[in-house]
Amino acid sequence: MINELQTVVLSHDINEHQLSSGDVGAVVHRYPDEATYEVEFVTAGGNTVAVLTLTNQDIRPMLQNKMLHVRAVAA
Q1: DSSP symbols for 23-53
Q2: pTM for this entry
Q3: How do residues 48-63 score in pLDDT, each as one tens digit?
Q4: Using CA atoms, how far apart are residues 58 and 56, in angstroms rounded to an integer?
Q5: Which end of the chain is less crowded, N or C, counting CB atoms within 10 A of the terminal residue's CB?
Q6: 16: which residues sit within 8 A by CB, 6+ positions away?
Q7: Where are the domains of the chain?
Q8: Tally of helices (H runs) and strands (E runs) in the chain
Q9: pLDDT, tens digit (0-9, with 9 covering 90-100), for 13-48
Q10: Which CA distances in Å does 4 have to 25, 26, 30, 62?
Q11: What phi, psi does 19 have (nearest 5°)?
C-alpha cells in the first residue's frame, strides 16, 4: 500500500507535464479507494512541475536500494 507523504516513482512518461518514467514524486493525498493518489512532482529548487491524480498503474513505491537520477526540465 502507498501512503500519504510517501516517495513514489513514475512508471511511464507523461509528456504533457514533462514527466519521464523514473521521475520521483510525493503522495500528497491518498483517496479512500487506496488505489488513487494525488502526487506532486517538484524540481530540486522546490518548484512544482505537476500535481496529478494517478493510480497504482502509474506509480510504484520508492525502494531503499534505488539510485536517484537528475535531469533538466524545460523552463
Answers
A1: -EEEEEEE-TTSSEEEEEEE-TTS-EEEEEE
A2: 0.92
A3: 999 999 999 999 999 9
A4: 5
A5: C
A6: none
A7: 7-61
A8: 0, 5
A9: 999 999 999 999 999 999 999 999 999 999 999 999
A10: 11, 8, 6, 13
A11: -105, 140
Cell of 67: 539510485
Strands laid side by side in the 36-42 sheet:
48-55, 36-42, 24-30, 7-10, 59-61
The whole-angstrom separation of Cα 1 and Cα 30 is 10
Count of residues for the chain? 75
The three three-digit cell numbers of residue 10, written as one number: 513514475
Q: Which residues pair with 75 in a beta bridge?
A: none
Which amino acid, residue 67? M
In this structure, which amino acid lies at residue 62? M
